[in-house]
Design goal:
309 residues; alpha/beta; TIM Barrel; 4-stranded antiparallel sheet; 10 helices; globular
Length: 309
């Protein structure tokens, strides 16, 4: 447990989910086994989000699938997963985890999303995060998440299938993310996660070929923080719903920026590769010290402050 100085309250509620602090493990990072998810929770995360799971097993793309670039990471892993029926055993093994377990799901139709979500909830998921934003798999992810009509169909189908909170994870690869967020909320989404990775690529100048096997991947890390921050800011002005900020958060200052922009909680991904599991506690410690220094008593007092006139 992270202890806050001077009785600062770091706890938050996101669509009914109680979290002892506002940090989450982002989807796509260390999220495919009960053991690693438990390690993250024990390291201080307020909630964990699994890697995206679908109806059927998939091996994803061939290597190379992840590379480090000057400003972060590029990945095109192709949504590898064991399938929700097998992954259900990992979810069941986490029933006593002590923090919310948010299962990220994807599908190739609204019905498929709904079926995967239903199995995940029956296995013990605290909430569902809809992957409407993966930029490098055809037929799902961003291809669905760029179309407001498809978003409404997917969100509506999942909401009819489960009684747990449903979060819509949105893509930045769109001309109007506020419109996309409005579509998700109007269809019943309980919260918005923003953002997923930005479409990008790298080329090897010696071989003259794209480095990733899939050629195009998703950029994560510090380079996308200003984009993610802008998206959270715009979504906050467009919808009345909790927002979970994600994208390039590496320290407490980044977390504070996202909260000032309107995020109720933040997800940590690429920073784990650099800082290790200690990133969760260091962000919480810095956040608590910031709140105390500024005279605030709780996280809730700073959410959306950047919008005040």
């Amino acid at each position: 447990m992270v202890r806050a100085p001077n009785c600062i309250d770091l706890s938050v509620r996101v669509s009914g989910l109680f979290m002892q602090n506002p940090t989450m493990l982002a989807s796509g990072i260390l999220g495919m086994s009960a053991d690693t998810l438990r390690m993250v929770a024990e390291s201080g995360a307020g909630a964990v989000v699994t890697k995206s799971v679908g109806l059927k097993p998939s091996s994803g793309y061939p290597n190379p699938t992840v590379i480090q670039v000057e400003c972060g990471f590029l990945n095109a892993v192709g949504l590898p997963n064991p399938g929700v029926h097998k992954f259900a055993e990992e979810i069941k093994a986490l029933r006593n985890l002590g923090v919310p377990i948010i299962v990220s799901v994807f599908g190739f139709s609204p019905e498929e999303y709904a079926k995967v979500a239903r199995i995940a909830v029956e296995s013990g998921a605290s909430a569902i995060e809809l992957n409407l934003s993966c930029p490098h798999v055809s037929g799902t992810g961003a291809e669905i998440g760029q179309d407001p009509k498809m978003i409404k169909q997917v969100v509506g189908a999942v909401k009819r299938s489960v009684e747990k909170p449903v979060f819509a994870k949105l893509t930045p690869n769109t001309t109007n993310i506020a419109e996309i967020a409005e579509a998700a909320i109007s269809a019943g989404a309980d919260a918005i996660t923003a953002i997923n990775t930005v479409r990008a690529m790298a080329i090897d100048v010696e071989t003259h070929r794209p480095i990733l096997a899939n050629r195009i991947g998703g950029l994560s890390g510090p380079a996308i923080k200003p984009i993610a921050l802008r998206c959270v800011y715009e979504i906050y002005e467009a919808v009345n719903a909790p927002i979970i900020g994600c994208g390039g958060i590496t320290c407490w200052r980044d977390a504070v920026e996202f909260m000032l922009a309107g995020a109720s909680a933040v997800q940590i991904g690429s920073a784990i590769a650099i800082e290790g599991f200690s990133i969760f506690k260091s962000i919480c410690t810095g956040l608590a010290e910031y709140l105390a220094r500024k005279g605030f008593r709780s996280v809730g007092e700073i959410i959306g402050l950047a919008h005040k006139k």
